[in-house]
Write a structure and sequence with these properties.
Layout: H1 4-22, H2 27-48, E1 56-63, E2 67-74, H3 97-103, E3 107-110, E4 116-122, E5 136-143
Helix pairs in contact: 1-2, 2-3
Length: 146
């Protein structure tokens, strides 16, 4: 079994080809999506699962010609599910992750319990996506640190 950091890295590597298709190779957009995913995964591990051994993080993603959607669910109570409308003070060591994700242009939804977040990314070139890119769906399970 991998540690969480290794599994996050594996997921980022596995999802890279999908992001390249979706973002048409736009390196900045790929970086933004990967950074947002890593932030959400770390939040789930830290705030939801509290780094408890054996707790899982479930990831589901789906790509259509217009949207890329990621749902990340942990086994805890999740991170605080209020999204700041302003950048937290720079003197705060933490608390900017969700704000940055929304500022990047992605949409976030939390379930009522706060242990599942869905991030929606709209394509910037939906009219140009190749017809051979079919809807894709994937489920991945990540486990807590050993």
């Amino acid at each position: 079994m991998f540690s969480t950091d290794e599994q996050i890295e594996l997921f980022a590597n596995e999802i890279s080809p999908v992001l390249e298709d979706f973002a048409f190779g736009n390196k900045q957009e790929i970086f933004n999506i990967k950074s947002a995913l890593i932030e959400l995964l770390i939040n789930a591990q830290e705030h939801g699962n509290k780094f408890e051994t054996g707790r899982k993080i479930f990831i589901e993603w789906e790509m259509t010609s217009e949207l890329l959607t990621f749902s990340i669910e942990d086994e805890g109570n999740g991170p605080p599910h209020t999204i700041p409308t302003q950048c937290p003070p720079l003197s705060n060591a933490r608390g900017r992750g969700l704000w940055l994700i929304v500022e990047t242009g992605f949409t976030l939804f939390f379930n009522e319990r706060g242990n599942k977040v869905t991030m929606v990314v709209k394509t910037k070139g939906a009219n140009h996506i190749n017809s051979d890119i079919n809807d894709k769906k994937k489920n991945l399970n990540f486990y807590g640190n050993n």
